[in-house]
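Expect sequence, tokenised fold; for instance:
***
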Amino acid sequence: MTFSRIWHEHYNPTVPTEITVPDTDITAALDDTISRFGSRTALNFLGAPITYADLGTQISLAAGMLRDLGVQPGDRVAIALPNCTSHVIAFYAVLRLGAIVVEHNPLYTQQELVHQLNDSGATVAIFWERTAAILGQASTSTSVSTLITVDVARDLPLTKRLLLNLPVKKARDTKAQLKATPPAHAQRWEQLLASATPLPADHPRPASSDLAALQYTGGTTGTPKGAMLTHANLVANSIQGAVWTGADDNPGTETVYGILPFFHAFGLTLCLTYALRIGATVMLFPKFEVNSFLDAQKKHPGTFLPAVPPMLGRIVTAARERNVDLTSFRYAICGAMPLDAQTAAAWEDATGGLAIEGYGMTETSPVALGNPLSDQRKPGHLGLPFPSTDVLIVDQEDGRTPVQLGERGELLISGPQVFSGYWGKPQETEQVLVDIDGRTWIRTGDVVVMDETGSVKVVDRIKEMIITGGFKVFPSQVEECVRQMPEVEDVAVVGVPGGDMGEKVVAAVVLAQGATELDVKAVQGWCEKQLARYALPREVIVVPELPRSQIGKVLRRVVRDNVMGGSAAAG
């Protein structure tokens, strides 16, 4: 197949069209950083710094400890921790042994934890005390034979740890949020490390083709599946990010704010693999809180912020109220949802830097496209394919035939960051990985258009497309129209069973401040000049808020379930 690759012409001049992926594991890049920037602060957890040299020592001790507990290459090791120093140490220690990291949301319910643990077959779990307590209540057995609990409070600076013991309500509440009583059979992380011996430097390294991580995904379309990411996938994506941002040209200078959860592929790559590859100092936050962010910014000004768009808006608003300077940030990279022009402009006005939208999925490690870090960026666009990455936009029906430039079609991606399949699910793998002319492509399920510069813009998701009366309705188009109404703060559009029509279009609306009601006739009247009649909402439901994922993405599946379950009152 011949590619025009028109997007290469619109790369920044310093960005190569192709990258070379070394035949190494992901921990080799960290070893190189340690040798070059050993005295530089690698991590700063709420005021507790650790240098790259000390981080390397702690990772070696943790790897030696896990080896002595019987962890072998290929074993799955579950990690469920908030962003903290111990999380980074555990992540790299597992990978150095050739074992496979299985990241979990530390706030998962018992049912979610049990399902994913048994699906991955993890035999060792490194859990936050609160997560371990939830697991310990499980009546159903799991594959885990060794449970290690982490007291996150021990990663805090000494002064903050002492404050937790004050006999005041705030201290008691904070301590209760951080700590819990783990199961009696659990072993303590800090005690195991205290008696550990370092992993020998000549311990066999994993191959680049070995699995590095199982990242669970698919929560918006059904039961989560474990995406199999190899060391080569993670290495490739960290290099692609480094050349795209220009960080390879000036390593050891960035300060990255780690407000995205590390258990999510976006946070994992940009804050754990990319950031440490380029010798950045990573400011660690157990959860995103604007005031904590701004407090840290005053002491340790950041230069690079991976985020989702709503975070940018909240930071800018609060910074203006508190008179906190944000001009140290040279760029913010946004994903998971569209970056609207207003939010981008507000961030760029406050920082003097750039707000850049990118695109990816867990299955692409995760970044596959990005806007140029220049005045060629296009808010609302996913951007250009990354170096060594090709895209096809194909007919939505057959999933193979390329469409004309400017026409809608499903986005297919091929590149070194594309995963090898879903763990233990060959049928699901076959549904998303397709062979076209001897090359493997992943079907994203996203409907996009490409303009004359090669820049891609998402239109909708195929799985969320509504079929009503034989017509196809794209939810995001309806949402864009409804969101312009003065009475509307936010909206999610879904399709629910609609009798002979197949599905009917339903809008779940969050009212703007001051608005008290909104009926379906008002919405239809507003939208009929922009939308075809079959795309007009047939029902409007007023809700107090829209359900979102951990990183702020609206979960249309949950909205649809709520609508069908009658959990909200119809407007």
Summary: The chain has three domains: 1-16+233-462, 26-206, 465-565. The longest strand covers residues 439-450. The domain at 26-206 is CATH 3.40.50.980 (Rossmann fold).
